[in-house]
Each structure stands twice: as C-alpha cells, then as structure tokens.
Recover the amino acids of this structure.
C-alpha cells in the first residue's frame, strides 16, 4: 500500500463446492508455501470485531468456520479448514484455524490391492503414466475416486513410460508424490483453483537462478529436520518357484 507495507490477503470462507460465503475479518495470517508439498495457512477470527465507526459487530460467519469448509485466497488457491480451536477468556473469544491446500483431500482415500504391470494375472497390465485410454493411464486410475480433479499437462518425455507397482494399501497423495514421483523422476504441481494436476520431469521444472545460499551471503542459520516415521526398513522375502510368506504374513511379502 502507500507506505510500502504488504497488505494482508483477504480470506474468503467457502462451502466445500467452492461457493463463497463471504470475507472473514482474519488476523495473524501466516501463509506457508511449499514447492513440492502441501501449503498451509494459519489465522485467527474473532467472535466480535470493531468496525471503522467503533461499533462492536458479531462476526457474521463465525459459526460457519468449521472443519472441511474451504478458505479461498485470490491468486493463491483453496485451503481446507481443519478442526478450529476455540480460544476464549472473560473478555474475548476467537477461533484459531489451520487450513491445508486443497490437494490435502487426496490423503483421505486409499489405494487398496493396487497392482500395476506385475503381469501375474491379478494386476492391470500395459499401464503407462498417461494414456488417452484412462483404463491404461496410471494417473487416471489413481484418481478414480476423485472425479473433481483433472489431469492437465504431462511432460511428453515421460507420458509413455511404464513402471510396475505393488501397493497393498496407501493414500493417493503419498503414492503420487512419493512412489510415482521417485519412480518416474517427476514433480507434481497442484492447481487448487482449477483442480488440475500437472506432471513435469524433474529437469523441466523451475529455473536455474545461479543463486547459491551460504553463510557468506544469504544464510544466517540453517535447520535440518527429518521425520522418523518416514524411515522404514523393509525386507522382502521370496523363494524359488514363486514361494513367499504371504499366507503367514497377512497377505504381504514384506516384513517391516
């Protein structure tokens, strides 16, 4: 604005079908954007606020700020509200909210007994990463339970690649962004405004800025974290003549 300070974005509360209910008088807005992960926004909404004329007004949409409803930020996209926390004392009350970018909904449904290109008579064969025949397209097969999402651009260099997968049970988002991304060497980009998923080969996304971050120029501190839940040792047990341990190991051939 006039004083060269950034204006906070306007947050619009929406129904799950993206119908806008109205703007929220949100405060303490923090938006965390991640290149290859789920974005997050946190904010607070007071039960009452004071307008420009000093009149105390009950926030019209306060009771409608609930889990699963959406937040829309213009030019950024849609975010799904998680269960808000209500904070109050003798004077004030407000809702403390966290919302995740809309692709988060892909974590809520799971692929079960999803066997691709195993050629064992129990799988789907001849599946490419993308195919005009959706029954032979890995991306479309993954999104069968999400008809509201569409496949946009897929790099031509990886469209026809074929890989095998043996998934007993896994959520769709982690399968795409971990298993598929690692196997095909690609990156997924989710446009939550158009509900479109695009897939780029790792070498075809982003640009080289020739900027290197080090303690000598831009970095003051560096933090490195890891999630112990993502570190798993798995042993696959196979024998001659197709012998395995599935019958003794709840249908799985791997021991964690």
């Amino acid at each position: 604005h006039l004083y060269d300070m950034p204006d906070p974005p306007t947050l619009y509360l929406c129904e799950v079908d993206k119908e806008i209910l109205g703007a929220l008088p949100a405060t303490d807005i923090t938006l965390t954007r991640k290149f290859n992960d789920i974005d997050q926004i946190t904010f607070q909404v007071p039960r009452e606020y004071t307008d420009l004329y000093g009149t105390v007004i009950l926030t019209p949409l306060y009771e409608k700020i609930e889990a699963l409803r959406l937040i829309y930020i213009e030019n950024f996209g849609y975010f799904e509200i998680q269960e808000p926390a209500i904070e109050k004392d003798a004077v004030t009350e407000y809702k403390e909210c966290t919302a995740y970018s809309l692709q988060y909904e892909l974590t809520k449904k799971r692929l079960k007994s999803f066997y691709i290109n195993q050629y064992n008579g129990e799988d789907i064969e001849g599946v490419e990463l993308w195919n005009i025949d959706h029954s032979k397209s890995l991306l479309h097969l993954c999104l069968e339970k999400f008809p509201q999402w569409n496949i946009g651009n897929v790099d031509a260099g990886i469209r026809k690649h074929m890989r095998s997968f043996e998934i007993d049970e896994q959520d769709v988002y982690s399968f795409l962004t971990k298993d598929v991304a690692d196997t095909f060497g690609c990156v997924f980009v989710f446009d939550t405004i158009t509900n479109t998923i695009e897939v780029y080969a790792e070498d075809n996304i982003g640009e080289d800025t020739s900027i290197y971050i080090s303690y000598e120029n831009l970095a003051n501190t560096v933090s490195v974290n890891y999630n112990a839940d993502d570190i798993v040792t798995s042993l696959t047990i196979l024998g001659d003549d197709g012998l395995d341990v599935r019958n003794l190991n709840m249908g799985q051939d791997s021991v964690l």
The chain has a mean pLDDT of 89. The two ends are 56 Å apart (CA to CA). The helical segments are 138-142, 156-159, 172-184.
